[in-house]
Every structure is written in C-alpha cells, then in structure tokens.
C-alpha cells in the first residue's frame, strides 16, 4: 500500500512585507516515489499568527515584523518552513508644507513626514535635522521657520540617510495702514500744528 512519507512546504523561508500575502504549496512524497500537490488537503498552521496568520488555502498574510513557522499536516505527516515579515522600509521623505511663504518677522512650523513600504506614513519631525541654506533670509529652530529678510532660501531636512528640501520665500513687510499723530488737535486762529503720519507694516 502506497503511503505518504513526507510533505514539503514551498517556497522555503520567504520574506514578505507587512500587509503582503504569500501563497504556500504543500507537496507530498509517497512511498512509491511519486509526488502530489496536497495544498487543499493539508491542515495549515502558523506558530505566530500575530506575525502572519495562514488560511486553509495556504495563504499567509504579514501582520507585524517577525518570524513564524508555517506547518502543513496530513494525518501524522507534516512539513514546515519559516516565514519572515520584514520591517517596513522608509521609501519617501517630505516636508509639510512643501513650500513656505512668510513675511519678515513672521514664523511658521514645518513637519517632516516619512512614507514606508507598507503604505503607512509617520511624523518624524523630532528625528529630523533641519538646516537653512541662507540663515540671513530665514532661520529654523525647534522646527519653526522665521523670516529675517526678503529673499528665497532652501530648507533641508535629514532623517537617517534620506534628505528632502523645501523652498522658503520671505517677503518684505507691506504698508497696511497709516496712523496720524496726534489723533485729535484743535487749531485757533492762524496757528499751525505739525502732524506725523506713521506707517503700519505687515510685520
């Protein structure tokens, strides 16, 4: 009588990203040397379902970084392999906003956001090193950009080995109003009085 003697689980020791799926195949070897695909007949099991659960069709899904053992069993015969779920890789870096316009004396905060291979994003502002190409035009401190003089400069953010830049434009203060001093005067006869016009700037 031909008996099942071994089950091989393939592919061997694959690595997937979080959120990705991996199809496994169970192939049985019998006592007469023949082989048969048993994927739909075996019982599938993952030793660490929090890392990657597996369904009855042999499809595992990456849930969190780590390693799990994928086992296929039929009766008393089983076979196994390992599955690694890799940590998501940083694939992008951006400054928010991507360009900034402010007037002399005003300031605004910026954020640095990293994108990862699993489709997620993360605020990495606290890990970022921010530098300004022309500090005479604008300075950056505690992730806040302050306009110093009219002009354009470049803000560079570095996180690990990745860099990204953003354009910073500083505009000159604009005249937004006039104030007359003194505000109230009384003139008698042919007397004269000197009035001062004081410009109010946007900064």
Q: Can you describe what's shown?
A:
The protein is mostly beta strands. Helix content is about 0%, strand content about 55%. The protein has strands spanning about 5-10, 15, 20-25, 25-30, 35, 45, 60, 65-75, 75-85, 90-95, 100-105, 105-110, 110-115, 120-125, 130, 140, 145, 150-160, 160-170, 175-180, 195-200. The mean pLDDT is about 90.
Topology pattern, helix = H, strand = E: EEEEEEEEEEEEEEEEEEEEE
Strand content: over 45%
Low-confidence segments, given as residue ranges, are none
* Distance N to C terminus: 93 Å
Cα-based radius of gyration, to the nearest Å: 34 Å
Number of strands: 21
> How many H/I helical runs?
0
Task: Give the % helix.
Answer: under 10%
Biggest sheet statistics:
4 strands, mixed
Structural class: mainly beta
Task: Tell me the quaternary state.
Answer: single chain
Give the overall silhouette: rod-shaped
Mean pLDDT, all residues:
91
* Strand order across the largest sheet: 2-9-8-6
């Amino acid at each position: 009588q031909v008996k099942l003697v071994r089950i091989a689980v393939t592919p061997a020791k694959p690595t997937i990203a979080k959120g990705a799926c991996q199809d496994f195949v169970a192939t049985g070897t019998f006592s007469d040397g023949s082989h048969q695909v048993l994927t739909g007949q075996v019982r599938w099991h993952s030793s660490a379902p929090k890392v990657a659960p597996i369904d009855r069709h042999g499809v595992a899904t990456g849930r969190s970084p780590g390693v799990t053992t994928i086992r296929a069993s039929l009766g008393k015969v089983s076979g196994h392999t390992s599955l690694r779920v890799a940590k998501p890789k940083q694939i992008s870096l951006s400054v928010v906003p991507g360009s900034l316009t402010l007037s002399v004396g005003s300031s605004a905060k910026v954020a640095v956001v990293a994108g990862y291979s699993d489709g997620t994003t993360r605020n990495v502002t606290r890990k970022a090193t921010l530098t300004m190409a022309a500090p005479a035009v604008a300075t950056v401190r505690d992730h806040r950009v302050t306009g110093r003089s009219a002009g354009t400069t470049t803000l560079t953010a570095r996180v690990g080995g990745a860099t990204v830049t953003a354009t910073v434009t500083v505009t000159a203060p604009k005249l937004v109003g006039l104030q007359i001093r003194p505000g109230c005067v009384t003139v008698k006869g042919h007397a004269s009085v000197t009035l001062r016009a004081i410009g109010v700037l946007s900064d």
